[in-house]
From TrEMBL, chain B:
tRNA-binding in keyword set: no
Identification of the protein by name: DUF4397 domain-containing protein
Keywords from the UniProt entry: Signal
First and last residue of the signal peptide: 1-27
DUF4397 domain span: 32-150
InterPro entries: DUF4397 (IPR025510), TAT_signal (IPR006311)
Origin superkingdom: Bacteria
Amino acid sequence: MRPGVRVPVLLVVLGVLLAVGVPTAWLLTRPGTSDGPPVAEVVASASGPAASPSPGLGAAGPDPAGSGGSSGVPLPPVTARPATPQVAPALPAPTRLVVPALGIDAPVDAVGVEPDGNMTIPEDVSRVGWYRFGPAPGAPEGSAVLAGHVDDAEQGLGAMSPLARTSVGDQVQVTDAAGGSTTWQVVAREEFSKQSVPLADLFARSGPPRLVLITCGGPFLADIRSYEDNVVVVAEPV
Amino acid sequence: MTPLRRTLVVGATGALALGAFAAPAFAAEDTATVSVLHAVPGVPVDVYANGEELIPDFQPGTLTDPLQLPAGTYDLAIYPAGSDPASTQPAASADDVSVPAGANATISAHLTADGTPVLTPYVNDTSAVPAGQARVTVRHNAAAPAVDVRAGGQVIVPDLSNPDEASLVTAAGTVSADVVLAGTDTVAIGPADLTLAEGTSTVVYAWGSEDAGYQLAVQTIEGTHSSPSGVPGGSAGLLDSSVPLPVVGAALLGMVALGLGARRLTAERG
């Protein structure tokens, strides 16, 4: 009787350990999907106020005087310039991305968009793409976006594959074509399902300067050979 | 260089009826954005709005930075620079120009096809273009017959008459543009390199007269960009974060053990 009781008790204990303990341990030990404050908050906090007030505030200047009738309309001071075709000076393009804490050191290519509207990502997974239509790293305003493949079926892991392990405070360096470099500090990392990535904020062209690093992550959907999520890291200038 | 033949968005529309400013959906402020272009060759002018001097000594070929004007109705007039508006006939005027809140407009002082100064208000299209694209709008403001506008030698806007405009969305980049008399290869203006910056609207005015010469004026309107629709980033699944099989297996095994143990226990009790 006595020894017979022990086997079922042992089984129950073992069962609970396996059924609850193993998944819990796995959950606890795997890298978290985020670090720092929510990315959406970080990027929205600045792109929002900075984007909308520029027209609004500009208007507020002459406006408070009130538009009093047709005779007393307050007219703002006017500046004019020659309307000849002009070429805006462009910042040098970034050429190298280094994140020492993660061992990322990758050449950067200027990229645009695919016909389907997605950002172009270099085919070579050891290279990273810079979204050339947005700000360059070092621009006074807006988010510079660098993105790379996390992996490829033939080429293996990509340069951006360690991105999911980024911690708040990690330093990021970007070197540009003119030899200059900018240094950034990570303020947030978060994993978004691809349908809910705050793209407009991440690709903001106004607001405080930021560096945004993007790759893929999360569960892999083998049937469409694609990851479900985007890993997004936001850094601010040091 | 860039294939400038995407979607022809707006056909040539006439000089917009005064008061036909389209207010964009986001119009929230009580102001409108208004730029003024001086495209009458040779004559500096003073620009008056509702009897008040808005721009003194406005030089031909110059464009004001965007003004935030209170929404409302404006009587606009231009006088030769330095003249007294009380005793001088305006060189051109436009009364009751309605400027609704949120509108973005350009008032162009230019010559008609037969050489008379005129004020034409245009509504600027500030709707977003797809990522990677740029909008280009062409306005015929010259004392000249109908023209074709070409980019890289290809006609992109055929048969445009003063003061009509045409607009299209194309891939961003630099194009070599020229203006020819409609249906001919007789170049009237250019060629000139035009930078169509991604996510912006570039408005090109063909202006001048046969005596003073023809040229291009360019206005750039920013903020019409869109972000890419997504960022694809991997195809192998090497970093798949789904629950790994061993974990699933261990959990299942645990549940089986738990079940067996529990059954034995209840069996012994009973």
